[in-house]
Write a structure and sequence with these properties.
The complex is a heterodimer. By secondary structure, chain A is mostly helical. Chain A has a single domain, classed as ABC transporter involved in vitamin B12 uptake, BtuC, CATH 1.10.3470.10. Helix content of chain A is 76%, strand content 0%. Chain A is built from 13 helices and no strands. In chain B, strands 13, 14, 15, 16, 17, 18, 19 and 23 form an 8-stranded mixed sheet that branches. In chain B, strands 6-7-8-3-9-10 form a 6-stranded mixed sheet, sandwiched between helices. Chain B has a 4-stranded antiparallel sheet with strand order 2-1-4-5, covered by helices on one side. In chain B, 30% of the residues lie in helices and 29% in strands. Chain B is elongated. In chain B, helix 11 runs parallel beside helix 12. Classes of the chains: A mainly alpha, B alpha/beta. At the A-B interface, helix 8 and helix 9 of A face helix 2 and strand 6 of B. Chain B: One of its GO terms (molecular function) is ATP binding.
Chain lengths: 331, 486
């Protein structure tokens, strides 16, 4: 058992290292990885690596990690392997906040370009609070079915709002669309700095609830009889997950599939124990999105594909393959 | 261990149960019974603290439920809700390990040796050790339920609340799980409160039963105090009958279906055939029979009776198998046939028919009195098997109660003894009047239709016929035997 866990962590970390190495080295300009420590030989390349590729890779990693761990937590919490951040309407809220910023061309003077991510995150939080209070209003014990249904209602409502803005927009159409398709390009270090604290806080919250997630898999009642303070833990997990999703969606747009595929793959490979599933999903989510970003900017170079297209393109077949294999093995 | 005082529970303004009080001692199993929707599962939820009570209180080990923190409570009490499929495939080990959650504390709480021991022990007790690394969705329903019980045992609390622990399981798994829980209760002083659907299982495994009706306690006490025919019929609105369990001192119930019998069931002479090899009775429908026959003795339903002639040197050692085989060879069904045997020629059997107000009564007797014995003097003889048997059948067109069956047996026996006295059959060892032979068999059969007889003693309507019929037929049969003997 111990060996398997060690193998899980080390292989995940090795894949992450390889992903970072590839992400930094490969691009329109061919720059060796070693340039990172060598400013003298080629100052231009050094500059490209540190101010363009490195922040991009790290941002992709953080976004992927956030979506993946949030997905793992939501799935465990909802006892539904098909749930992900989107099910609760959180990412729709974030999207609406961001799209509204573009549509109304908001700009808060002091923070300037950060207006959009800030509004995105705010949208995520407001949506989360609305979904939670509405679900609580319907059913005080906040059953999972109620939560999912509330999330779906909010998602579709917020989705309509976004569609309305798209329909009414002229000049901003292209900008809105490209944001909606998702990207981690040209965001730079400030974005990394901006989401890093949220990612760390969110991760910590979820990680401290890893054992409670294990108990909650057997139903709220069983979890409570095991001594879990179900209601409080549920709130903590929802808040942590929303924070991570909100942060990720705000900086990179709607990138689907990561929150669904990564926990799934991790679970199939290394088991359902949340004590490891959360951290492993975090690491693997980072790797997956770094690779996806790399593909998105090299496959039809010099043009770039939206990263959301790549995650779906890679995610869906890989997911199907693993799913298929698992089912076959069971027979 | 557990005390419940005037407890009430409700969903919003809808009252589910109210004013429920009971106590469970340590090391006992309490079964909660009641029709669907009587509030028994909700009661369990309120006792466990999952649902707040709307009135009253629950006391565990002398302290109110509210005085415990969730973790403390989890160490005192475990509730296992009805088996629900998980969407994730955990291994058996992982599943059982969750039971240790309340024993681990602190942010970096690590797995202690004690936790490991408890998990191992729980898996061993429930026999799921061998599946340790299997994922739970590969196991059968019974195995899964055992895994969840192992999880509850690993929690190591003294009070276990179960909601229909054997729901959807076959009888082998039902027995396995309940035997296991019973063993925990007996050996380690576990206390169990469990909701049951199956009244018989509850009666069999519980020390006490709580019968609920419309959210209130209808009865509380030992199974024999709670399972009263009228009470169960009243609460469940179903006709039932209670019997004793064959091994345990517990009542068991049977449903009585409300089937309308269209066909009239009547026994006539045509059912009897007397031949050299055997006397046979064949009916198109089964009769309720109480007998001391060789094959299928006791109380039951049978439609064929045979009384066969065997050689005096018949090997009595493997009579069970031999008789079974014989019945098949004769073209009868061994599970539907009562078999007797005698050394006398069954061609000499006496069949007598008595017309009565309630219908015909038939008596068939074969008699051999070569080894007749006076029962009051029988202690003087060694147990030597000698051929010579009186086999008696009484077939009644009527409905007899259980006591009427037993009384009919007594009445018939007394009539037989009287016949031996009348014929002056002597016990050759004591030289007194014999009362029977060492191997007599008696059979009372009734169609269970028509007139009902609560009693079957000598002066009852049916007893009078039995007394007269058995006496007359036995006298005649002894006379025939004597004629053949001399």
């Amino acid at each position: 058992m111990k060996k398997k866990i060690m193998l899980a962590y080390s292989s995940s970390l090795v894949i992450l290292m390889i992903s970072i190495w590839l992400g930094v080295s490969i691009g329109t300009a061919d720059v060796p990885f070693s340039t990172l420590w060598d400013q003298e030989t080629n100052p231009g390349a050094y500059n490209i690596l540190w101010s363009i590729r490195m922040p991009r890779v790290i941002l992709a990693g953080l976004v992927g990690a956030s979506l993946a761990i949030a997905g793992a937590a939501f799935q465990g919490l909802l006892k539904n392997p098909l749930a992900d951040p989107y099910t609760l309407g959180v990412s729709s809220g974030a999207s609406l906040g961001a799209v509204a910023t573009i549509f109304f061309t908001f700009s808060i003077p002091l923070i300037g370009t950060y207006t959009l991510p800030l509004f995105g995150m705010t949208g995520a939080f407001i949506t989360m609070i609305l979904v939670l209070s509405f679900a609580r209003l319907i059913d005080r014990s906040m059953k999972m079915e109620t939560l999912i249904l509330t999330g779906v209602i909010f998602s579709s409502f917020l989705g309509s709002c976004i569609s309305l803005m798209i329909a009414l927009s002229n000049n901003q159409l292209r900008e809105i669309m490209s944001w909606l398709l998702g990207s981690v390009s040209m965001r730079g270090w400030p974005y990394v700095q901006m989401i890093l604290p949220f990612v760390l806080i969110g991760f910590t919250i979820l990680w401290f609830n890893r054992r409670e997630l294990n108990a909650m898999m057997y139903g709220d009642e069983r979890a409570q009889s095991l001594g879990v303070n179900v209601k409080r833990r549920k709130y903590a997990l929802l808040a942590g997950g929303s924070m991570l999703t909100g942060a990720a969606v705000a900086v990179s747009g709607a990138i689907g599939f990561v929150g669904l595929v990564v926990p799934h793959m991790t679970r199939m490979l290394w088991g359902t124990d949340h004590r490891h599933l959360l951290t492993l999903s975090f690491i693997n989510g980072a790797s997956l999105l770094i690779i996806c970003d790399l593909v998105s900017r090299t496959i039809i170079s010099p043009a770039e594909l939206p990263i959301g297209v790549i995650t779906a393109f890679i995610g869906a077949p890989v997911f199907s393959y693993i799913f298929f294999k698992q089912r076959r093995a069971r027979r | 261990m557990l005390e419940v005082h005037n407890l009430s529970g409700s969903y919003g303004s809808k009252n589910i149960f109210s004013d429920i009080s009971f106590k469970v001692e340590k090391g006992k199993i309490l079964g909660i019974l009641g029709p669907n929707g009587c509030g028994k599962s909700t009661l369990l939820k309120v006792i466990s603290g999952i649902m707040p009570p709307s009135g009253g209180k629950v006391i565990i080990d002398g302290a109110d439920l509210n005085e415990y923190s969730p973790r403390q409570l989890a160490k005192k009490m475990t509730i296992l809700p009805q088996l629900s499929a998980s969407s994730f495939s955990n291994t058996v080990r992982e599943t059982v390990s969750i039971g240790r959650y309340p024993h681990q504390s602190g942010f970096f709480s690590s797995w202690q040796e004690e936790d490991e021991k408890a998990v191992k022990k729980a898996m061993r007790q429930t026999g799921v050790e061998k599946y340790e690394e299997h994922t739970i969705d590969h196991l059968s329903g019974g195995e899964q339920q055992r895994v969840f019980i192992a999880q509850a045992l690993a929690q190591a609390s003294n009070l276990l609340l179960l909601d229909e622990p054997t729901n959807h399981l076959d009888i082998a798994h039902q027995k396995q799980i309940l035997d296991m829980i019973r063993k925990e209760v007996m050996q380690n002083g576990l206390t169990v409160v469990s909701v049951f659907h199956d009244i018989n299982l509850a009666a069999l495994y519980c020390d006490e039963l709580l019968l609920m009706e419309n959210g209130r306690v209808k009865a509380f006490g030992a199974p024999h105090e709670v399972l009263l025919t009228e009470q169960i019929m009243d609460v469940y609105h179903a006709r039932i009958s209670l019997q004793a369990h064959p091994e345990q001192p517990k009542p068991q119930m049977t449903i009585l279906p409300d089937l309308q019998e269209q066909q009239e069931k009547m026994i006539t002479d045509n059912s009897f055939s007397i031949q050299q090899e055997y006397v046979a009775f064949r009916s198109a429908f089964p009769l309720r029979v109480l007998s001391s026959a060789v094959h299928n003795a006791g109380l039951g339903w049978y439609s064929t009776f045979i009384n066969r002639t065997v050689e005096p040197q018949y090997d009595i050692e493997n009579v069970k198998e031999e008789f079974w085989q014989y019945i098949i060879e004769q073209g009868f069904s061994p599970t539907n046939t009562i078999g007797m045997m005698t050394a006398v020629d069954t061609g000499n059997a006496v069949l007598k028919k008595y017309e009565t107000d309630f219908g015909e009564v038939f008596v068939v007797v074969t008699a051999g009195v070569g080894s007749a014995v006076d029962v009051s003097q029988s202690y003087k003889r060694k147990n030597v098997f000698k051929v010579g048997t009186i086999n008696t059948w009484v077939v009644i067109n009527g409905k007899l109660s259980d006591e009427a069956f037993v009384q009919a047996m007594m009445t018939a026996t007394e009539a037989k003894s009287k016949a031996l006295a009348h014929e002056e059959v002597i016990d050759r060892i004591s030289n007194t009047i014999a009362t029977g032979t060492p191997t007599d068999s008696l059979l009372i059969a009734a169609t269970q239709q028509g007139q009902y007889f609560q009693y079957g003693g000598p002066i009852t309507e049916v007893g009078q016929i039995i007394g007269r019929g058995v006496f007359e037929a036995t006298v005649e049969a002894i006379q025939i035997y004597k004629k053949g003997d001399s």
